[in-house]
């Protein structure tokens, strides 16, 4: 498989000082996932989840995750295993989700517009510069 499909030029401002309007970057993003900045202990990505779509059920065993919703309405689910998502809460713009290391989680777009969010991983979770135009690209990426 050609990994170039998942990496685009200088999108990631890898380990350089960086200041952005995070709300504008998040709302302007039209990719499923775009990695904007990767440091030694922190990473920033922006995401657009289509109506009815989700971020994908996942667990991070090496990092905590912060998610802020900038646009739309969703359902956040978390739990100790992929078949036990015992925590459920509606989320909407201006709300933040904190996902502890080792907790399974997913956010599903339950609104009528694309769900726009940014996420901060501590430590980084994606290869610097990763861009996934669609969720299928993310699922097909051998680096994920």
Automatic annotation (TrEMBL):
SUPFAM superfamilies: RmlC-like cupins (SSF51182). Its EC number is 5.3.1.8. Keywords: Isomerase. PANTHER family: LIGAND BINDING DOMAIN PROTEIN, PUTATIVE (AFU_ORTHOLOGUE AFUA_6G14370)-RELATED, QUERCETIN 2,3-DIOXYGENASE-RELATED. One of its GO terms (molecular function) is mannose-6-phosphate isomerase activity. Residues 46-121 form the Cupin type-2 domain. It comes from the Bacteria. This is Cupin domain protein. It holds the Pfam family Cupin_2. It comes from Enterococcus italicus (strain DSM 15952 / CCUG 50447 / LMG 22039 / TP 1.5). It is an enzyme of class 5 (isomerase). Coiled coil: none annotated. The keyword Ribonucleoprotein does not apply.
């Amino acid at each position: 498989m050609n990994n170039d499909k998942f990496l685009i030029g200088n999108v990631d401002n890898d380990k350089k000082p960086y200041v952005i309007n995070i709300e504008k970057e998040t709302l302007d993003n039209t990719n499923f996932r775009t990695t904007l900045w990767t440091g030694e202990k922190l990473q920033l990505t922006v995401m657009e989840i289509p109506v009815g779509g989700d971020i994908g059920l996942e667990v991070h065993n090496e990092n905590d995750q912060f998610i802020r919703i900038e646009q739309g309405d969703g359902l956040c689910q978390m739990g100790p295993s992929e078949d036990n998502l015992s925590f459920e809460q509606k989320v909407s713009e201006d709300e933040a989700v904190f996902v502890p290391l080792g907790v399974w989680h997913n956010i599903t777009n339950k609104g009528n517009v694309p769900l726009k969010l940014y996420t901060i991983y501590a430590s980084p979770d994606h290869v610097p510069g990763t861009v996934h135009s669609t969720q299928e690209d993310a699922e097909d990426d051998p680096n994920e």
